Amino acid sequence: MITKRLVIYHFSTGYWMSMYSKKFREILKHIFYSRRTLGRYYSLKRIKNHDFTIISDNCWGRGVYKFLGLPCNTPTAGMGIERDYLDFIENLNSESADEVTELDESHCEAIAGRTYPIGRTPYAKLHFFRYNNFTVAQRLFRMRFKNINKENLYYKIDFDYYNCRNKEDIERWNKMQLPNSVAFYSDETLKFYSGKIHNGVYIKKKMHPLNNFHFGFNQKYFDFITWLNTGIPNQTLKYKVLNFILLDDGINIFIAKSLRSTFKKISPKILKRA
């Protein structure tokens, strides 16, 4: 009799836990989808021109297009450019800027933890982190390069990107005075540079270092909508509220943890009644 009750309890517990696990995932999916849909709708309504190109030293630009559901009109999607990124920017108008030759895997960065396609233009080394095949990466890079909108061009640089930037890079960036630009920096940057950074935006370090490079985690530090409309990165209380309600992926993590904690508290009571 005791064994039978234990078996029944075991299966009933497993059943309820699986049911609530499924319910938990459904609730999260609905909340995240609703936030992203409303955030995208509001952002697109406010952005005046949807045909823009973001040149970025990593996948940040791709994250903007993905969030807004717009065509990825940038050659710097799915890749990273490190020490020679400023050379890449300065030579965008060169006839050979989109000519990419393949390099061997010895040029891959160890921090990636794997080998990946890598190429080089006459001006910069391109790390195709998100590709498995160089031919595909090369073809998409050249195709997207032709789609650059030079009349509505934006630039983003991260001075904390895998610690590959230095004081000379910031000084060079400041001299370039690029319009429609934004420069991310953190406490790591302040260790080697204490002056003003052209269109600089301070990004607080997160638990995971890669979060600094992802649009979903760092757009809360400046109004990216106004930036796409005016070219100037700034911050307003209105945008802070909007970001908290609809945009920040960090809030999704907070919601997930809160709901998980709530389900853990209510499940034992329900199981006991069952």
Automatic annotation (TrEMBL):
InterPro entries: CAC2185-like_sf, DUF1919. It comes from Cyclobacterium marinum (strain ATCC 25205 / DSM 745 / LMG 13164 / NCIMB 1802) (Flectobacillus marinus). This is DUF1919 domain-containing protein.
